[in-house]
Design brief:
By secondary structure, the protein is mainly alpha-helical. Helices cover 62% and strands 0% of the residues.
Length: 113
């Protein structure tokens, strides 16, 4: 775990430990918005990567990424074409995202002689 991540975790954990935050959600933020339906979120997550994998498989087989392919994938997965396009864009953004950079620059580590 990078030091910056460990530092951020410890800072939030300390809020609970030192009775500054009343709950873990207050210290770390709640994982989902109020009223979120976990089953729907889970389905979307599963379908997002199912769409991504099907389109990548088709692309590897020489198919172009276009409306016709989105329609084929939609039928295979029992989804509608518009949702397949949205899920494809979401998954593509996730898969091509750079890893997060630390919130601040760290000094180089000192060499131990």
């Amino acid at each position: 775990m990078p030091k910056w991540l460990a530092d951020a975790y410890i800072a939030r954990f300390d809020k609970v430990l030192n009775c500054v935050a009343r709950t873990w959600d207050e210290a770390f933020d709640p994982p989902f918005a109020k009223g979120a339906q976990l089953a729907a979120l889970r389905r979307r997550r599963v379908n997002r990567f199912a769409v991504y994998n099907k389109i990548r498989e088709a692309q590897s087989a020489g198919k172009s990424i276009n409306d016709e392919l989105f329609e084929v994938v939609a039928k295979k997965l029992g989804l509608n074409r518009a949702l397949v396009i949205v899920l494809w864009k979401e998954a593509s953004a996730i898969m091509s995202a750079d890893p997060p950079s630390p919130p601040h620059k760290r000094a180089p580590a000192k060499k131990i002689s």
